[in-house]
Amino acid sequence: RGVLLKAAYDVSSFSFFQRSSVQEFMTFTSQLIVEHSEKGSRASVKEQEYPCHVYVPYGSLAGVVIADSEYPSRVAFTLLEKVLEAFSKQVDRIGWPVGSPATIQYTALDGYLSRYQNPRDADPMSKVQAELDETKIILHNTMESLLERGEKLGDLVSKSEVLGTQSKAFYKTARKQHSCCAVM
């Protein structure tokens, strides 16, 4: 059975009265997922409407990220790798099985949690992807406006052709009118 060594929660999006229940749900679900995961595996499991990302590297540590459905799984696994690597370097392995989350001296978890709230800011690939998506939208809008301009230019060309035809007709009529009169 897995032992919770350290946890960090951001339950600010839930009402005050739901927060403790949500934390209990997250703790229970995390332990359950870790128990059913094999060493050396990464997996994403959906519990209710929340995707739970678990990473169990070779060793005795495991990490779980529970996020909303919009959070990219690649960023969650990057976060898990960084946290587990930093934790294993900073916290002596002797204290793992007997320690409680309150006694283990590892303060970087809250920093990781706040830094990774917005995957765009934390992950360079997400930032590049977001910039590409924005560029694609701008190009799409530019193409639409160019097509509209092309249609407007087409309208102007056809109107100028009609105007040219009308001016030729006017010129011919004016010439006929002028040719019948003698000027003295």
TrEMBL record:
Domain V-SNARE coiled-coil homology, first and last residues per copy: 124-184
Domain Longin, first and last residues per copy: 1-113
Annotated membrane topology: Lipid-anchor
Keyword NADP: no
GO biological process: endoplasmic reticulum to Golgi vesicle-mediated transport; protein transport
Single annotated GO MF: transferase activity
Family per similarity comment: Belongs to the synaptobrevin family.
Protein name, entry field: Synaptobrevin homolog YKT6
